[in-house]
């Protein structure tokens, strides 16, 4: 079974000094101060703006997995890959051979590839974007499956979005934790919401206290930051069943600030055409975390 490796440029965290052994304690004290309530509210507002932007998750309007061989494309319902109504009824074919996909455009319909007109078959790369007016589509992998992700800036999800809901900002949910690195990074396999599998590389745990109870979260590395996929006891009621949280890299002595006021929902909380990893078992918390983003009630 082939699984998709989430690409976050993981680095070894075998020692906290990896991040910046030369940094002064004063600079780290400033870096690890929790943001003010006003800063967090501004961050929340930017998050909603990003969701509603022309490239935000609310523009994703379809996800279709390709079968081997030719797959017809267009807005007519008889196509294998059905595009939004504003696209041509019959736009061409996507031909899958193993992991390779070629787009064969209908010569009667003008198409753009990365903004430039095309009229002949072309092998698609992961970064390629095909477009017809406000509709774009591109390759997307979920586990071992190859699909087409469709975007439309005029999507119904974007037009009818009800807005994000948040718990009030509370200082008590900006928690200082301790990073505990593994002897060597661990690779685990997690399912996503579609039942496909993805690999995560984990450099260590963070350990902290909530109401006197010790909690451990497994951390992944995202660039220079730590990334947490978690759920809590309020999942399905007050909070969504999957939430994400990022934290700055640990200080040289292993301190990490977890600001749960900035915990947020992944795109699958609003959009059924997105794929999100499920929290690893250790990160399915038995405690409630009434902080950060609430469950979306717009459906």
Helix-strand blueprint:
Blueprint: E1 4-5, H1 17-20, H2 25-31, H3 37-52, E2 60-65, E3 69-74, E4 81-82, E5 92-97, E6 100-105, E7 111-113, E8 116-118, E9 122-123, E10 130-132, E11 135-142, E12 145-152, H4 156-159, E13 174-191, E14 197-210, E15 213-222, E16 225-230, E17 243-248, E18 255-259
Parallel strand pairs: 1-14, 3-4
Antiparallel strand pairs: 2-12, 3-5, 5-6, 6-9, 7-8, 7-10, 10-11, 11-12, 13-14, 13-18, 14-15, 15-16, 16-17
Would you kindly provide a brief summary of this structure?
This protein has four helices and 18 strands. The chain folds into two domains: 4-54 and 163-283, no CATH class; 57-152, Tumour Suppressor Smad4.
Polypeptide structure, described:
The chain has helices at 17-20, 25-31, 37-52, 156-159; strands at residues 4-5, 60-65, 69-74, 81-82, 92-97, 100-105, 111-113, 116-118, 122-123, 130-132, 135-142, 145-152, 174-191, 197-210, 213-222, 225-230, 243-248, 255-259. It is built from four helices and 18 strands. A hairpin with a 2-residue loop joins β10 and β11. Strands 1, 13, 14, 15, 16, 17 and 18 form a seven-stranded mixed sheet that branches. A six-stranded antiparallel sheet has the order 2-12-11-10-7-8, with no helix packed on it. It folds into two domains: 4-54 and 163-283, no CATH class; 57-152, Tumour Suppressor Smad4. Helices cover 10% and strands 38% of the residues.
């Amino acid at each position: 079974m082939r699984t998709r490796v989430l690409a976050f440029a993981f680095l070894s965290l075998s020692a906290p000094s990896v991040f910046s052994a030369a940094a002064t304690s004063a600079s780290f004290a400033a870096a690890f101060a929790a943001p003010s309530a006003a800063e967090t509210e501004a961050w929340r507002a930017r998050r909603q703006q990003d969701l509603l932007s022309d490239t935000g998750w609310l523009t994703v309007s379809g996800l279709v997995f390709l079968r081997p061989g030719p797959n017809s494309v267009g807005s007519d319902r008889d196509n294998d890959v059905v595009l939004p109504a504003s696209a041509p009824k019959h736009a061409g074919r996507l031909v899958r051979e193993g992991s390779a996909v070629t787009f064969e455009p209908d010569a009667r319909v003008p198409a753009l590839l990365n903004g430039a007109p095309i009229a002949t078959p072309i092998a698609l790369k992961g970064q390629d974007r095909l477009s017809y007016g406000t509709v774009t589509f591109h390759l997307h992998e979920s586990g071992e499956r190859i699909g087409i992700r469709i975007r439309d800036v005029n999507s119904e999800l974007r037009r009818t979005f009800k807005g994000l809901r948040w718990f009030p900002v509370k200082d008590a949910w900006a928690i200082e934790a301790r990073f505990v690195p593994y002897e060597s990074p661990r690779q685990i396999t997690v399912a996503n919401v579609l039942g496909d599998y993805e690999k995560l590389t984990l450099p260590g745990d963070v350990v902290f206290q909530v109401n006197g109870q010790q909690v451990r979260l497994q951390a992944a590395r995202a660039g220079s930051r730590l990334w947490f996929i978690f759920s809590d006891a309020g999942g399905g009621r007050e909070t969504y069943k999957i939430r994400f949280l990022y934290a700055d890299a640990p200080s040289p002595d292993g301190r990490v600030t977890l600001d749960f006021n900035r915990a947020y929902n992944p795109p699958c909380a609003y959009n059924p055409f997105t794929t999100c990893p499920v929290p690893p078992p250790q990160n399915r918390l038995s405690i409630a975390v009434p902080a950060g983003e609430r469950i979306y009630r717009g459906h």
